[in-house]
Amino acid sequence: MTSVNSAEQDLLAIVNAQIVTVDVSGTVIANGSLVVGSNGAIRALGKGSVPHDALETIDARGAIVMPGLINAHTHLGMTLFRGLGDDMSLEDFLARLMPAECKVLSPEAVHAGTELAALESLLGGITTSLDMYYLPEAALAVAMSSGMRIQTGPNFLESDGPEPLPFNERLAWAEKWLAVPRDSAGSTGWLAPHSTYLLGEDHLRQIADLASRYEARINVHAAETVGEMQAVAARHGGRTPIQVLSDTNLLRRAVLAHGIHLSDADIALIAANNASVVHCPASNFKLASGVARILDLQRLGVNVALGTDGPASGNDLDLWIAIRLAGYMQKMMAHDPTVLPALEIVRMATINGARALQIDHLIGSLEVGKRADLIVLDADSPSLVPSFDPHVTIATAVTRADVCHVIVDGRVVVKNHMPLTIDRQSVLSAVRALGADVLASVNSR
Ligand SMILES: [Zn+2]
Question: Does residue 409 carry a pLDDT above 50?
Answer without folding.
Answer: yes
